[in-house]
Design brief:
The protein has a domain of 141 residues: Roll (Pnp Oxidase, Chain A). The chain is built from 6 helices and 9 strands. 29% of the residues lie in helices and 33% in strands. The model has no long low-confidence stretch (mean pLDDT 91). The chain is globular and about 55 Å long. Strands 1, 2, 3, 4, 5, 6, 7, 8 and 9 form a 9-stranded antiparallel β-sheet that branches. It has 215 residues and is an alpha+beta fold. It binds flavin mononucleotide. Flavin mononucleotide (FMN) binds next to strand 2, strand 4 and helix 2.
């Protein structure tokens, strides 16, 4: 599996000595850069652990990033929501292959206010809201026929779309915006000479401590 190229010939330069004191500033500049070069720059892998301590991971969309933290949204009743309620620590991993970059964020997660979750839901497209109202995400399918029964699926989607139209303010109670407050953020920049640059910011009280890591 080693024959595929990981990165393009041209990679951006990154000198950790020139990095800002605030990792939020560096993250925003890398995110903006990624958005100019590749798809879904705002879709990291969210890693959580379940009640047995086993890791789990899936892609989510970053809804917002502010100095205080990284925000994403999902159902509190989804497997990831249940896992976060049991163990409110998580990691977000961004991989931007077209730029040879990875960002690793680790921290604690807390639900935002009910108002913020409602705003999050109402900002979604009608189709996305209807999909959430249809529900069943991550529930086991009894059999494939359930999935291919288009009449059943269409009826559920149609009903959900109707509910969104009739009551645009409606917010499912489980819909939750979460905020991950980072305690470390690592920036990884590939280099074709294999001297990859790694810069980790670690929270120390109100400050960030910067440390270089061996590649
Ligand atoms: C690009 C992309 C973006 C996604 N964004 C979200 C999201 O913001 N929230 C969400 O609940 N699921 C999102 N999903 C679906 C999740 O990856 C996952 O399949 C689903 O949430 C069920 O996860 P769980 O069973 O671990 O709770 C996204 C998937 C992809 C591929």
């Amino acid at each position: 599996m080693s024959g595929w190229p990981s990165f393009p010939d041209e990679l951006p330069a990154f000198d950790p000595d020139d990095a800002p004191d605030d990792p939020h500033e560096l993250f925003l500049s890398w995110l903006t850069d990624a958005g100019e070069h590749l798809l879904a720059p705002h879709a990291p892998v969210l890693s959580t652990v379940d009640a047995d301590g086993a890791p789990d991971a899936r892609v989510v969309v970053l809804r917002d990033v502010v100095a205080a933290g990284f925000r994403f949204a999902t159902g509190a009743d989804s497997p990831k929501g249940v896992q976060l309620a049991g163990e409110p620590r998580a990691a977000l991993t961004f991989f931007w292959p077209g730029r040879g970059r990875q960002v690793r964020v680790r921290g604690s997660v807390a639900p935002c206010s009910a108002e913020a979750s409602a705003v999050d839901f109402r900002e979604r497209s009608p189709a996305s809201r209807a999909e959430v109202l249809v529900g069943h995400q991550s529930e086991p399918l009894a059999d494939r026929a359930q999935l291919t029964d288009r009449a059943q699926l269409t009826a559920a989607a149609h009903a959900a779309a109707g509910r969104v139209r009739e009551d645009p303010e409606r917010v499912p109670p489980a819909w939750t915006r979460y905020e991950l407050t980072p305690h470390t953020i690592e920036f990884w920049q590939a280099s074709h000479d294999r001297r990859h640059a790694r810069l980790r910011y670690r929270r120390d009280g109100d400050d960030w401590v910067r440390e270089l890591l061996w590649p």
